[in-house]
Amino acid sequence: xxxxxFCTSFLPGWPILLRMAKVIAACILLxxxxxxxxxxxxxxxxxxxxxxxxxxxxxxxxEGWQSKWVNTTSSEYTGEWEWVKNYSEVTEDYGLRMGSAGxxxxxxxxxxxxxxxxxxxFVVQYEVKAMNxxxxxxxxxxxxxxxxxxxxxxxxxxxxxxxxxxxxRCGSTxxxxxxxxxxxxxxKQWEEKHAKGTPASSAADKxxxxxxxxxxxDNSFEILVDMQSKMKGSLLKDMDPPVNPPKEIDxxxxxxxxxxxxxxxxxxxxxxxxxxxxxxxxxxxxxxxxKKPSGWNDDEPLRVPDPDAKKPDxxxxxxxxxxxxPIVDNPKCKVGCGEWKRPTIRNPAYKGKWYPPKIDxxxxxxxxxxxxxxxxxxxxxxxxxxxxxxxAIGIELLTNAGGIVFDNLLITNSEAVATSYAEKTWKxxxxxxxxxxxxxxxxxxxxxxxxxxDMQIQIGELYKEKPVVVIGVFGPTPPLRFTSRV
Length: 486
What we know:
It is built from eight helices and 25 strands. Helix 7 crosses helix 8 (467-474). It is 20% helix and 28% strand. Among the domains are: 1-46; 57-247 and 383-436, Jelly Rolls (Sandwich); 444-486. It is found in: Endomembrane system; Endoplasmic reticulum membrane.
């Protein structure tokens, strides 16, 4: 701010100086230098910052992370996990990367104690960077059900989870998953409940993205991507299949009666085909009024050997074969050639097949539906936000592209804690990544060069108008060679 005030202090008393490259350049350099220092400090802090509140689980993958994570012993998971440093613009920062393209990866970590949500907010948040983009890859995580921590070495796709959340992209699928496993207390069966209309993954551009799921005590949920709300829904209304089954269901033993009429219309039995209705007449006939155009050649072919073509001088019949002139359009066929046929037109007498008109069906009973019976498996859970207890987190994925990095996994009961942590970490990282992309964008150097050239021309024009002022600012030996427009 002080630098900006210093630079703009020239405005009231010295407006002419605003056209002087020396002052402008000095201010820009000072501002850029200050911003660079501030940015560097923020980047250093981002690598070591901790959530400023309570949390259930936090993993920044700093030194010592290996002691908390367990690799599966299942033989189908052959992918190697890589602990990577400085994978983005944040220095001294670490992440966990799926390093083996085309292979399955799986590892998990137990919580210090089981998470039991009781009428409180629940937030899960983490960062993903697809260094090679996303081809057919998932980057979601699983919050494993209580007692999973006892068998993490056996972690595979069959180990039951409570929540699955995160990006997935393959073929026509491109979404952020939110799947809740919910148990029917009557049948004791578990069923996956998928959030409907979840947002696109946004993970294919190789930048670091932040994914946040919030479940609130009023049964509402919200999905954020890069700190921006992308979906809001209700656990009671926006899950498929619904959390609560219907109270009544169709009777599977009920069948439609054989005499049930469900056609609202019927052929008029009193109607008859008119005597002059001829179904044999063709829909199209030759145009009797058409005449063969003047100049039409019935006996000429459409394509002929080029009469003007000549065999090349270097053509050798023994080596190249018999020479033949190239085929071209017959110049005698400008109007037309070959057998002339009359064009067809729609037959004005054509009527087609006759059908009797439709009338209301006097026996119509309406659409048939089986009768409803009470659903013996019915239950009602009015508090699905109190999800099943969890005691571990797992990442179990197949990656085709490889190079997917996970970082800053955070599970908490506070939206404020998650937001504050994202402000100090992901937001800083995102700003630097975006700046780097902009800096390396095509045309950046050319645009800067053009701007400097234009500024040089403007100073040259001012020098022609008021040389004393320009010399007073730059001295008798100006640092720029002033030019002017022709």
